[in-house]
Amino acid sequence: MDAIYLDYNSTTPIAREVAEAMAPHLFEQFGNPSSSHPYGVAAKRAVEAARADVAASIGCLPDELVFTSGGTESNNYAIKGAALALRERGNHIVTSAVEHPAVTEVCRWLERQGFRLTVLEVDEHGLVEPADLERAITADTVLVTVMHANNEVGTIEPIADLAAIAHQHGALIHTDAAQSIGKMPVDVDALGVDLLSIAGHKVYAPKGVGALYIRSGTALNKLLHGADHESNRRPGTENVLGIVGLGRACALAARDLDKNRAHFLAMRNRLHDAFVAALGDQVVRLNGHPQKRLPNTLSLSFRGIEANTLLAEIGGQVAASAGAACHAEDIDVSAVLKAMQVPIEWAMGTVRFSVGRGTSSDDVDLAASIVSAAVQRLLLG
């Protein structure tokens, strides 16, 4: 595949060092961590070493981490687990209008179970205003769940401020940090969160593995029932292969954070500048906060263009994601763009480009040239 890959927010390749750490667990080190013989002991040690690496990367204790099948399970466990555990104290949950479906759909399910749900609106940059949470929170609020950084436009939410408000009113706070790990500092104490979700495949680890940070003393109802794995919090034989990969990936992300952030920022800005130079700001619009944004994420709207048509035009050459889909009768704009009230003539042509460790200046320049030429062709009809 020769297409230039600019969709790292969707998924990342497994880093070579991560694959090398995982390799022994494909073959000779295949034990069950619950077994007491040497094979099991070796597997258990590998899981606990990975737990320590993931914990160190977000500033928590190893025993505050539960390994899961990914970000979606982590979000489900955090939100359902907290809401159901605290139901006798209150039934109010607060979230935002720009959450990933792995949060939104969980909240909607709880709403159908009798919980009251408040969805906070965002400003034109996708930011939640802490004062809005202050107005929405009540004595019955048991959980606030707001993502750390938006997967579509990259906007970074004021989680520490939201956490302070939640705690002043006796509520727990959860944040989905799937997109922020490895791209910016993530520290659970600095953020003040009680629960934090991690997805492996966003941080150069395998798909199908993740983790949930649960602050000591936070009670959750279990999502699954079975044996007493993961300190009796998540049953099922541990995915040793994936867990080892996640541990190594988080260690690498922490080690190289400053270098990677600088690279992401340089590539993202180079790409943006190239589009503006080629097409002008009458055709190109930036979505998301201009400063409070992930260093690798560039959501652009091309005025008067249909995103899927543009992606089809460049499909074999540049890999990116659409923020809207145009059908015969209507235009299906993402919930995030709707919440930000992006005008339809811009929203319909929204494409997310996300750079990664492997993105080079040559990739950026060629991609900008290919996409800009496609936009010009489409505008000419």
The CATH class label of the largest domain is: Alpha Beta
End-to-end Cα distance:
29 Å
Rg, nearest Å:
21 Å
Helicity range of the residues? 40-55%
> Architecture of the largest domain, according to CATH?
3-Layer(aba) Sandwich
**Low-confidence runs:** none
Based on Cα principal axes, name the global outline. globular
Which terms would index this structure?
7-stranded mixed sheet; Aspartate Aminotransferase, domain 1; alpha/beta; 381 residues; 2 domains; Aspartate Aminotransferase, domain 2; 15 strands; 4-stranded antiparallel sheet
What does this 3D model show about the protein?
This protein is α/β, with parallel strands linked by helices and 381 residues long. It has 2 domains: 16-255, Aspartate Aminotransferase, domain 2 (3-Layer(aba) Sandwich), CATH 3.40.640; 257-380, Aspartate Aminotransferase, domain 1 (Alpha-Beta Complex), CATH 3.90.1150.10. 41% of the residues lie in helices and 16% in strands. The protein contains 14 helices and 15 strands. The chain has helices at 16-22, 38-58, 71-85, 101-112, 130-136, 159-168, 188-191, 229-232, 240-255, 257-279, 307-314, 335-339, 344-347, 361-380, and strands spanning 4-5, 65-68, 92-96, 116-120, 141-145, 172-176, 195-199, 210-214, 284-287, 297-302, 318-319, 321-322, 324-326, 331-333, 350-354. The strands form 4 sheets. Strands 2-8-7-6-5-3-4 form a 7-stranded mixed sheet, with helices on both faces. It has a 4-stranded antiparallel sheet with strand order 9-10-15-12, covered by helices on one side. Helix 3 (71-85) packs parallel to helix 4 and helix 10 runs parallel beside helix 14 (361-380).
